[in-house]
């Protein structure tokens, strides 16, 4: 079966639902440190599990005959700046747990998410290449860079089949975002529909790589299903769909929500965003495993506004 660590998170929730659709509910064990909302528990097995507890994960793996693990538990960029040591311990401790289960041949395949946060202030910002200068300046980015190095090391030294993508900022409606710097691109839709107004914590012109969640989930499963012989990257694949600045997403929302107003109040997250790329070159993912995005900004706004309106 398949084990999801961090199943209540922004990506974990949607990965769990999609994997259950594809493999049947009973085949996907959703776990998290906390109880999420009902939708996960209604759709299949759920257990409380701390991703930093090796023995506890090993028990679940043996008991449920787990072959594949998706490690979606982490502390994201903004929160990690507030609790650096807790972020490092969670992000790295959980990764070593699953990599070592792979090394012990207790599981066969691992997915671990990296992020555009792995790039730093002196990384080329336009069409950032797969291999380039990376001096991440955030706790979260440092944990992603170290994590990528360990994934490649465990693949080369111990043959662990670990696969990874560098997610851009992700936009979705099923869950609230979890303490990231790109969260403005999720909050803006909810606020626009609820109050017709949004105060953005990043300033005009802050262009960031972004992706609609359906594309991110599809990319993840496409990589996991790919023929391993075709995979030339075992650190983490660049992945891209679109890039935009706050005023551009606001513009598309104004077309759907007449009178929507946005103002700007940059906070500590501006410095984090300024250290990240404007756009990403994902040609390696396209060559190696056929990646191709579907959602651009127009389609994303169309989908987000219509789905959130249904929830009202
Ligand atoms: C964050 N959404 O903002 C996450 C992601 C690309 C950003 O890693 O921290």
TrEMBL record:
Family to which the UniProt record says this protein belongs: Belongs to the NAD(P)-dependent epimerase/dehydratase family.
Name under which the protein is recorded: NAD-dependent epimerase
Pfam families reported in the protein's UniProt record: Epimerase
A molecular function GO annotation: L-threonine 3-dehydrogenase activity
Example of a GO biological process term: L-threonine catabolic process
UniProt cross-references to InterPro entries, sorted A to Z: Epimerase_deHydtase, NAD(P)-bd_dom_sf, NAD(P)_epim/dehydratase
Organism for this UniProt entry: Flagellimonas lutaonensis
Top-rank taxon: Bacteria
Ranges for domain NAD-dependent epimerase/dehydratase: 2-226
């Amino acid at each position: 079966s398949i084990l999801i660590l961090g199943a209540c998170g922004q990506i974990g929730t949607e990965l769990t639902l999609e994997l259950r659709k594809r493999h049947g509910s009973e085949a996907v064990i959703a776990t998290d440190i906390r109880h999420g909302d009902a939708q996960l528990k209604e759709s299949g097995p759920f257990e409380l599990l701390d991703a930093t507890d090796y023995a506890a994960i090993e028990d679940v793996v043996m008991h449920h005959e787990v072959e594949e693990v998706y490690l979606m538990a982490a502390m994201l960029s903004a929160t990690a700046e507030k609790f650096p040591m807790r972020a490092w311990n969670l992000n790295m401790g959980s990764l070593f747990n699953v990599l070592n289960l792979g090394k012990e041949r207790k599981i066969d395949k691992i997915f671990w998410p990296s992020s555009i946060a792995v790039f730093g202030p002196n990384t080329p910002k336009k069409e950032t290449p797969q291999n380039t200068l990376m001096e991440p300046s955030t706790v979260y980015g440092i944990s992603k860079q170290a994590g990528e190095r360990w994934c490649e090391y465990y693949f080369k030294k111990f043959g662990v089949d670990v696969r990874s993508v560098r997610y851009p900022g992700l936009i979705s409606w099923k869950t609230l975002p979890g303490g990231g710097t790109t969260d403005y691109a999720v909050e803006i839709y909810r606020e626009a529909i609820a109050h017709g107004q949004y105060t953005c914590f990043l300033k005009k012109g802050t262009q960031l790589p972004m992706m609609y969640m359906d594309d991110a989930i599809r990319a993840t499963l496409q990589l996991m299903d790919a023929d391993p012989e075709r995979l030339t990257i075992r650190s983490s694949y660049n992945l891209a769909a679109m890039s935009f600045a706050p005023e551009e997403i606001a513009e598309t929302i104004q077309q759907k929500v007449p009178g929507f107003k946005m103002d700007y109040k940059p906070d500590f997250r501006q410095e984090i965003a300024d250290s990240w790329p404007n756009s990403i070159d994902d040609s390696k993912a396209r060559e190696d495993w056929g990646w191709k995005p579907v959602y651009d900004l127009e389609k994303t706004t169309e989908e987000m506004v219509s789905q959130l309106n249904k929830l009202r």
